[in-house]
Structure formats: structure tokens, C-alpha cells
Amino acid sequence: MFSIKLLNQSVVLLTTYEVIQDAFTKHGSVMSDRPDIPLFSQVSNRNSIIEQNYNETFKMHRRNGNKIFKGLENTKVSMEKVTMEEAGYLMNYLKQYCGKPIDIKFPIYHATANSVSQVALSKRFVYNHKGFQKIIDSSVAMTEDPTFGKKIFAIIGIPLLRHIPPFRSANQQYVKRTKEIYDFIQEQIDEHIETLDPDNVQDFIDIYLVENHISKTQKNLDFEANADLRGFIKDLFTAGIETVSITINWAIVTLLHYPEIQAKIQQELDSVVGSDEKIRPGHRKSLPYACAFLEEVMRYHTISPLGAPHLTSADVELSDFYIPKNTMIQAHIWAVHHDPNNWPGPDKFDPLRHIDGDGNFVSSKKVLPFSVGLRRCLGENLARIEMFLFIATILKHFHVLPDSGKSLPPLHMGIHGLFYSPFSFEVVLQERSSLI
Ligand code: HEM
């Protein structure tokens, strides 16, 4: 653990699993506020679950969120159903590009965005839908445009920069794009209120409306509840599209570097999943090597190296160190994922680390891409299902090959923005002959 000073803000970096666990779980009630980040709050007014402090309102929203995610299992947009359906669409889309170089990132963005959209709004959009493309572009702009991303990153660190060129225009662009997302979501909420049938709830918004005792006759959500719902859905889009897509992209880059790992996952898939059978989340327990591969991808390419910032709401003592109120706390997830005490030879990519002597997949507490404790990622379940289904479906149907004549995208280097993502690359998909 060590601390630094960023302008007037003290920041403590937690660098071991034990201390992160202690801070966010045992001392979670005083180490789970969020710092106010003016870049975000100028649009959101902190009416978003990610940005809220750990107070009674937040706790209620978080409980609501968990309950709604559970409630979805009884609707036609259960995570399992929507991701399986989307995996089918993704495969059909990719089939059209077999044999040609393709930037796979874009269909992946659409597949992950549709999964969130189905869960939240029970709507999916075709991959070239202009309106939805705009929402995706706005949700992933910081990753897709590294120059923009770097300026935004600088504004997050030094908020005053947002008033000074050239950062001012990046700030304006951020505000414009985020407002587009909010407008899109507001339209969806209004439409849902219009068509709400409490006896036949369709999705996250419907369940939220029913939980808040909204009926068609009553019509309007009060201002606060509306802002909360809009912020919640905005978080699902902004936290749920980029993170899952980037992890899948890293998985693809890794498969290009290790064809033998790709072949091993395909062998496992062939022996477990029948040729006409669709891959289901339930197959995970019979596919230990595929699960170990994804776990190793999340360890090796830690996409959120410092997690999301926390803030102390009171003075606290942690591992014999005194940390005052209003200190920013960052979990150094990358350090835990690359600590040689946890992972011998941490710079080697090796899925077998996550397989026990009997060939079973063992998930380790020390792989913590979703963080731990009271602010742990709310979308972990959805993210894990998507990553598994999309990668397994791609590998069941295609060989993922490098674009010949071009060098492979680097495995050890990427773009450091809000998330750590691979450089742009193209792949060539070849339909697996055994399945034709
Ligand atoms: C590989 C994919 C993902 C990764 C690595 C990831 C990682 C994280 C991390 C590190 C945090 C911060 C935890 C903390 O403050 O300690 C977080 C929070 C959050 N994530 Fe994710 N996430 C992923 C996917 C998703 C998805 C798919 C959704 C929803 C559709 C989602 C929704 C959220 C929300 C709402 C929060 C805020 C929780 C809170 O503030 O209490 N995430 N995520």
C-alpha cells in the first residue's frame, strides 16, 4: 500500500489482494463512497449508481438492481436467453465476412450493446442500425478515439482543464455524447410507461416501474425516480458495452498469438457440444479449459488496472495505517494480477493455472477484474455469460486467423485510456470445415 498526492487530493493505492479485500469488505462501509468527478457529474448530477456515495439511497438502488437482475430470469429477456440469441446473430453476421479481413470489434460492440439493450429495454437492433450505432459510438468514444480518451482522462485527473483549450472541446464533446445517451434512454422510459402492463413485465425498466408503483394510469414517475432510473440504465450501457467488448477483443488477440490454445478450446467444444447444439451458459461446467482461458485473459490483460475510485467517508485504520476521511482509494488490480506471490511467472499467459489436478476449472479469489466488496461490479454475471457465449460460439464455428502479411497486434502493449484495450487489428475468420 502506498499513497500519493494529486494536486490537493490524497490517493492511497492498495496493492495486495488481502488489503483490498480488507478495505472494501471489512471496512467497506467507510471506504465505499465515490469522489465527485466533475466531468461526469456536470451531466449526471451524480444520479447514477456508479457515481453515488455509499448512502441509504445508494443501498436501496443497489438492492433494487440486484433484485431486478434476478427478476429478469422470469421474463423473456433473461440473461441466458438474450445472450444465446445474440450469439446466433453474431455468428450469422460474421459468416458473411469469412475469408476476408474484418475488424471484429464492431460486431462485438453490437453484440454486447444488444445484450444490455435487451435486458434493459427488451429491444435489439440490427448491426447497421444508424440510431443505435450512435449510442454505441457515444458509449465507447473514449476507447475508440485515443486522443479524445487521453484528454478525457486528463480532465478526470485535473477537473479545471475542462475549461481550457484543447480540453474544453473534448469536454463539450463528452457532454454532447452523454446527453445523446440520456435522451435515447428517456425516450425508452416514456415509451415503457405508456405500454406498461404490471402483470406482464418485460425488462429492467418495467420491473423498476412496477417496484416504484407506477401504473399506466398514474403515468409519470416523480422527477427523482425518473432521474435515478435514467442514470441506472445509462450506467448499464456505459459500464456494460466497452468492458465486455474490450475483454473479448483481448481474448481474440491472445488466440491469434496462441493457435495451440485456440485448437485446445475447439477440441473441448467439439467433444462437449453437439454439432447442431447451441452453446448455453450451462455448458461452462463441462468446458473447464475454455473457462480457464477466459479467467487467464481477465488476469493477464487487466482492462481496469485501478478499478473505479473509492473515497473514505470517515477516518479509518487499515493494516496499521491511518487513512483520513475524504481520501481517494484505488485498488491496484493489475498489481494483484501480476504479483509473483500469487502467480508464478506472472508474465506468462497460461490457462492451466486455473485448472486443478483433476482437470476442473478453479476460479481464484485473486482474479478480481470486477473488484470486491460493497461496490463490486453489478453486471458481473451478465459479463461472464456474454464473454463465454460469444467467444465459445466464435470458436465453435470459425478458426480465428491473423490477416496474412500483417504483423500480429501486440499482446503486451495496448491503449491506456479509461480502460486498457488492444490496438486496432483485423482477423480472418475461416469456417471450420468439420461443421460445413
Ligand atoms: C468484463 C466486464 C466488466 C468488468 C471488468 C467490470 C469491472 C467493474 C469494476 C472494476 C467496477 C468498480 C468496482 C468498485 O468500485 O470497486 C464496476 C462497477 C460497475 N459495473 Fe462493471 N465490469 C464489467 C461489466 C459490466 C456490465 C456488463 C455491467 C452492466 C450491464 C456493469 C455494470 C457495473 C455497474 C452498475 C457498476 C457500479 C457498481 C457500484 O458503483 O456499486 N459492469 N465494474
Helix and strand arrangement:
Blueprint: E1 2-6, E2 9-14, H1 17-26, H2 38-44, H3 56-71, H4 79-95, E3 101-102, H5 105-121, H6 130-144, H7 146-157, H8 167-195, H9 204-211, H10 223-240, H11 242-257, H12 259-272, H13 288-300, E4 310-311, E5 316-318, E6 321-323, E7 328-331, H14 333-337, H15 380-397, E8 398-402, E9 415-416, E10 420-421, E11 427-431
Parallel strand pairs: 2-7
Antiparallel strand pairs: 1-2, 3-11, 4-7, 5-6, 8-11, 9-10
Helix pairs in contact: 2-8, 3-9, 4-5, 4-15, 5-10, 5-11, 6-7, 6-8, 7-8, 8-10, 11-13, 11-15
Bound molecules: protoporphyrin IX containing FE (HEM).
Protoporphyrin IX containing FE is lined by residues 49-50, 62, 116, 235-236, 239-240, 243-244, 247, 303-304, 307-308, 369-371, 375-379, 382-383.
Family: Belongs to the cytochrome P450 family.
GO biological process, one term: organic acid metabolic process
GO molecular function, one term: oxidoreductase activity, acting on paired donors, with incorporation or reduction of molecular oxygen, reduced flavin or flavoprotein as one donor, and incorporation of one atom of oxygen
